[in-house]
Amino acid sequence: MAPQTVAIPPVEQLLPHAAPMILIDRVNAVSEEALEAEVEIRPGSLFHDGAGVGAWVGIEYMAQAIAAWAGYHALLRGETVKIGFLLGSRRYACAVPEFATGSRLKVAVKLLLQAENGLGSFECAISDLSTQQELAQATVSVFQPHDATQYQEGMA
Predict the structure, then answer these.
(1) Which one of 19, 36, 42, 96 counts the least CB within 10 Å of its CB?
(2) Residue stretches of the chain with pLDDT short of 70
(3) Do the Cβ atoms of 136 and 126 come closer than 8 Å?
C-alpha cells in the first residue's frame, strides 16, 4: 500500500457515525485506492454474544472501512465527511462462524469502480492479524449520493 499523503485522522473523524455504531477501531494505512483498518474483538464490542462477534457483522466492518476510505479522501479535498449507503455484496464468504474474543482483525478494502453518480464497488477481505489467515472476503457495492439529505427526502 502506498504511503499516506497526510496523517490519518482518528476513525471518529472519518466516519459519519457516532458511538456506539463505530465498529472499526483505527485506520492503519490508506492510499488512493485502498485502506486497511483494524478491529479488536472485545467483550464490550457491539454484537458480542459472549464468545465473539458473529461472522455476519464482517460485512459491516467492510462497509465502515469503505466509509473511512471515502471520509479520508473527502477530508483531503477539504470537504465534509458524507453519509453513504451499503447496497449489498457479492459472494460474502467467511471461514469462521464468528470472530473470537481477543481476535485482532485487519479489514482491507480496495476500490474496483467509482462512478460519477456515486456508485462504487470494492474488493474486501478480513484477516486475522496474528495468523495472517484470511477469514472473510466479498465484493461490496456502495452508493454515496452527492446530497444525502435531498436523496433521503426523495425516498420518503
Answers:
(1) 19
(2) 1-6, 147-156
(3) yes
Would you tell me how many other CB atoms lie within 10 Å of the CB of residue 98? 19
* 25 residue type, one letter: D
CA separation for the pair 81, 71 (Å, rounded): 5
Percent of the chain whose predicted confidence (pLDDT) is above 70? 90
- Rounded to 5°, the CA angle 26-88-33 comes to 50
pLDDT at 90: 87
Compute φ and ψ for 122, nearest 5 degrees.
-135, 140
Residue 74 is classified by DSSP as H
**Residues in Cβ contact with 118 at an 8 Å cutoff, skipping those fewer than 6 apart:** 84, 143, 144, 145, 146
